[in-house]
Amino acid sequence: MIVKDSLIKNIQSRNVRVGVIGLGYVGLPLVLRFGEEHFTVIGFDVDAEKVRKLNAGQSYIRHIPATRLQTLIKEKQFEATADFRRLSEPDCIIICVPTPLTAKKDPDLQYIEKTAAAISKTLRKGQLISLESTTYPGTTEEILLERFRTTGLEVGQDYFLVFSPEREDPGNPKFSTRTIPKVVGGITPDCLEAGKTLYSQVIDRVVTVSSTRAAELVKLLENIYRCVNIALVNELKLLADRMNIDIWEVIEAAATKPFGYTPFYPGPGLGGHCIPIDPFYLSWKAKEYDFSTRFIQLAGEVNTSIPYYVVDRIAAALNDHSRAIRGSNVLVLGVAYKKDVDDVRESPALEIMELLQHRGAILSYHDPYISQLHKMRAYDFSHMRSVELTEQTLGQVDVVLIATDHSSFDYQWIVDHAPLVLDTRNATRTITRGREKIYRA
Question: pLDDT at position 345, please?
Fold first, then answer.
């Protein structure tokens, strides 16, 4: 039996081990999905503390219950490890490592490169490798395929290589890893067949495309579409503010049109691990083809400017009450990048806090899901802990900034006890009492 047919047969009979590299917001849901479909799963991560917690049945991601992990561990279907020498053990390896940007907004592919180097040391016949990390078109071929060529193994014959972009939306109750369609592109037709077979065991619908490059561009298109449209409504928010028009009212009215319009909503800036980052991957790669992605660059400029606008609105609100930013106490409500999650990656709240700090504000924050901030690539608020949200806390600050509209916040109570509120999320839209205290940004 040829290698591909043997692998496919073993996948269909659950007679393979699945390895997941990177046990964060993308990798951990995949671990659970494969484990719950009776695959044996090995999770790989460089963070020894994550590995320890997972092997103890502890979840460090709020929307992933520990009970799901504990069931898999009890049934001996999952273990985590920091020993990358064990990469020869899985038959199918899924790569879910970060792809951030450098300080100059260039792609930082060090994690993919290090992972490719680790896999190449143990790559063997019959293995399937799938890259899920968001990146520019050509990465799978230029980094993984080139690295694996040094092993002497033939892609599509001895081993199989695909790209399948992650589509996780943490905290979204409407969709799960199983129900979100999975796009897959392969280096060769046999690679594609093997990849489709693997994902078909755990995902309701698998959509195949002609190449890994096409699959890589699919994910970028999805996020650039959102980035550009968010930039559009953010720019219109600035105009509507000058024209004394409620942009939220306009959007809600436009959304009643049953065709040709999809509502997007303004905010304090872009956040999350995808939308603020992914468009720059394509802009960077486009330069290789002597092509300028003007829409993407303009959208990036607009969205990058929004935290500055928010800070200016805070200054204007304080000025109306004879206060300056310097020396004012600002309480930031919500530092997660979106509501009801415990994820601060690329959160616009952090950029706003940095700008406020530079202008002399005295900062505090409250977030029910993030008890303490840690040092990140661009920010260091590791000295800050979430303060208790009480009447006294609200009364002692000069302004409350609603940066993330968590569902657990009682906005009427907040407005009642805060001297001034700046709302970046339209969270106070239904508030009637104390509206004179509310400014929007």
Answer: 86
274 in active site: yes
Q: Give me the pLDDT at residue 277, please.
A: 78
- CB count within 10 Å of CB 140 equals 29
Contact 254, 240 (CB under 8 A): no
Question: Measuring CA to CA, which residue among 283, 360, 284 is closest to residue 318?
Answer: 360
Give the strand pairing for 78-81 and 362-366. unpaired
Residue 334, pLDDT score: 96
92, 96, 227, 274: the catalytic one is 274
Query: Tens digit of pLDDT for each residue in 137-172?
Result: 999 999 999 999 999 999 999 999 999 999 988 778
Q: Cα dihedral sign for 210, 172, 301, 251?
A: positive
Closest to 406 measured CA to CA, from 341, 316, 347:
341
The CATH class of the 235-440 domain is alpha beta
Q: How many CA atoms lie within 13 A of 159 on its CB side?
A: 25
Query: Which band of pLDDT confidence, cut at 50, 70 and 90, is reported for residue 31?
Result: very high
Domain boundaries, the chain: 3-210, 235-440
Q: Which pTM was predicted?
A: 0.91
Q: Which CATH architecture has domain 3-210?
A: 3-Layer(aba) Sandwich (3.40)
CB 165 within 8 A of CB 134: yes
| Domains 3-210 and 235-440 equal at CATH topology level | yes
